[in-house]
């Protein structure tokens, strides 16, 4: 059963050497459970994406979902908007993610126009769009590649277009940072992760998920050309921003 979804137990046994985290077959098989138990507010962010799209998207506009994983944002939009309201392109570098996202869209919303591409979002030739979603993806790019991508997305957005940027963040203040990280680990414990799982995953994500501060994210958006950005959601060290292109 290739489309079954399993409980995330990837870091539940002691590993001699914890490998760098990667979006491989093993992660894909438990990804919905992993992201739900590991990202505070993930469900609320997805729910709000459709409401934001309903307010900001011109009828029939194009939406990019960059680092779409299993296409959860596409599914949320298709669940809330009629078939002709938007065209969606999900992009992901992981072949296992792309294959499963395509299958899910074909099974669950064949009437909507939902495409998935296997590509590196740093190298894509972007078409004009009304909305771009970066839901917990920019944090996986090398920091030196982030500004160039955001500038290209600003250029691809149509007047009045919006970018949604969700990220894990770090606090510049050490005490605030420690408090948020400790409460995040409490959140993981409350969701059934053991000390070993929390600590091995932390090691696996080192130098793979490199968080920015909230100020740095707003700075990057301004640098890319966006005249206005806002933090619309925050839950511990997980946040979502919206950036507006002038109409
Ligand atoms: N250079 C790249 N090009 C394309 N994809 C990439 C690249 N680097 C990483 N990815 C992809 O970005 C995704 C990040 S997960 C996004 C969750 C999703 N948005 C969700 O709303 O469920 C976040 C998380 O798991 O915390 C993975 O699928 C990677 O393969
Ligand atoms: O689990 C973590 O520590 C996170 O930061 C969230 C996460 C969720 C899914 C894949 C990678 C990171």
Describe this structure as you would to a colleague:
The protein is α/β, with parallel strands linked by helices. The chain has a domain at 42-170 and 208-244: Rossmann fold (3-Layer(aba) Sandwich), CATH 3.40.50. 43% of the residues lie in helices and 21% in strands. The protein contains eight helices and seven strands; from the N terminus they run H-H-E-H-E-H-E-E-H-E-H-H-H-E-E. It has helices at 25-38, 42-56, 72-80, 95-108, 143-156, 174-190, 195-205, 214-224, and strands at 61-66, 86-92, 113-118, 129-135, 157-168, 228-235, 238-244. It has a seven-stranded mixed β-sheet with strand order 3-2-1-4-5-7-6, sandwiched between helices. A hairpin with a 2-residue loop joins strand 6 (228-235) and strand 7 (238-244). The mean pLDDT is 97. The structure holds ligand GEK and 3-phenylpyruvic acid (PPY).
Class by alpha and beta content: alpha/beta
Radius of gyration, in angstroms, nearest whole number: 18 Å
| Main β-sheet, spatial strand arrangement | 3-2-1-4-5-7-6
The CATH class of the domain at 42-170 and 208-244:
Alpha Beta
Mean pLDDT: 97
**In whole angstroms, how far apart are the ends?**
47 Å
- CATH architecture annotation name of the domain at 42-170 and 208-244: 3-Layer(aba) Sandwich
Low-confidence stretches: none
In sequence order, what are the helices and strands, one letter per element? Answer: HHEHEHEEHEHHHEE
SS elements, strand count: 7
Task: List the bound ligands.
Answer: ligand GEK, 3-phenylpyruvic acid
Instruction: Could you tell me the CATH topology label of the domain at 42-170 and 208-244.
Output: Rossmann fold
> What is the helix fraction of residues, given as a range?
40-55%
Largest sheet: number of strands, sense, barrel closure = 7 strands, mixed
Count of alpha/pi helices: 8
- CATH homolog superfamily of the domain at 42-170 and 208-244: Vaccinia Virus protein VP39
Portion of residues in beta strands equals: 15-25%
Shape verdict: globular
């Amino acid at each position: 059963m290739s489309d079954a979804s399993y409980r995330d137990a990837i870091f539940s046994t002691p590993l001699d050497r914890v490998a760098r985290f990667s979006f491989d077959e093993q992660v894909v098989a438990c990804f919905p459970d992993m992201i739900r138990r590991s990202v505070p507010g993930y469900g609320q962010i997805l729910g709000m994406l459709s409401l934001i799209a309903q307010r900001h998207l011109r009828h029939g506009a194009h939406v990019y979902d960059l680092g779409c994983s299993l296409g959860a944002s596409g599914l949320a939009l298709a669940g809330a908007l009629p078939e002709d309201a938007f065209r969606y392109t999900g992009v992901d570098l992981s072949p296992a993610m792309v294959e499963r996202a395509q299958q899910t869209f074909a099974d669950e919303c064949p009437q909507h126009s939902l495409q998935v591409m296997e590509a590196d979002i740093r190298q894509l030739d972007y078409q004009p769009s009304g909305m771009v979603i970066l839901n917990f993806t920019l944090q996986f790019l090398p920091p030196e590649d982030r500004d160039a991508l955001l500038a290209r997305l600003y250029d691809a957005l149509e007047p009045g277009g919006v970018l949604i940027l969700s990220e894990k963040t770090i606090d510049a203040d050490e005490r605030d940072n420690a408090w948020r990280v400790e409460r995040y680990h409490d959140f993981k414990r409350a969701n059934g992760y053991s000390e070993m799982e929390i600590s091995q995953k932390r090691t696996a994500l080192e130098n793979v998920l490199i968080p920015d501060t909230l100020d740095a994210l707003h700075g990057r958006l301004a640098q890319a050309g966006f005249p206005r950005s806002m933090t619309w959601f925050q839950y511990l060290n997980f946040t979502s921003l919206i950036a507006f292109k002038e109409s």
